[in-house]
């Protein structure tokens, strides 16, 4: 039973919408995790860490990776250790701070991430194949209004 099945007709539409959004997010994420494992023998957290590094060509410090990924430093360290052992990332000393390291993708890591990112994009496109272009634009705009309202009131 998914989360949406918990809602009843007497619940507010807003609650039922939230549960539908959450259910869709979970279904898509489960699909992404499965495809990453089957096609690339990797995990979503590893993909996410590599995505952060791909956007920061010079690399990122461990604490910045942790902040961007919203996970603990220990999680980032464990993932980084695995990726480094596979030659996908490297740690580079930060000039003037012997305790700090920048983590960056290696050439091999960049090639592997690019292949995963291309497949990931296709999986996301497929996830929304039930909607036409106008519906996608409308849904994106409506969710943008929710985001904007939340940011204004936060």
Shape: elongated
Number of DSSP E strands: 3
- Radius of gyration equals 19 Å
> Count the helices. How many?
6
Binned, the helix content reads: 55-70%
Main sheet overview: 3 strands, antiparallel
Mean pLDDT across every amino acid position: 92
Helix-strand string? HHEHHEEHH
- CA(first)-CA(last) distance: 33 Å
Class from helix and strand fractions? mainly alpha
Explain how this protein is built:
The chain is mostly helical and 154 residues long. 67% of the residues lie in helices and 11% in strands. It has six helices and three strands, in the order H-H-E-H-H-E-E-H-H. The chain has a three-stranded antiparallel sheet.
Question: Which helices and strands appear, and what pairs or packs with what?
Answer:
Layout: H1 13-40, H2 44-55, E1 60-61, H3 62-69, H4 73-85, E2 89-94, E3 97-105, H5 107-127, H6 133-153
Antiparallel strand pairs: 1-3, 2-3
Essential attributes:
154 residues; mainly alpha; 3-stranded antiparallel sheet; 6 helices; 11% strand; elongated
Give a brief outline of the structure.
This protein has 6 helices and 3 strands; from the N terminus they run H-H-E-H-H-E-E-H-H. It has 154 residues and is mostly helical.
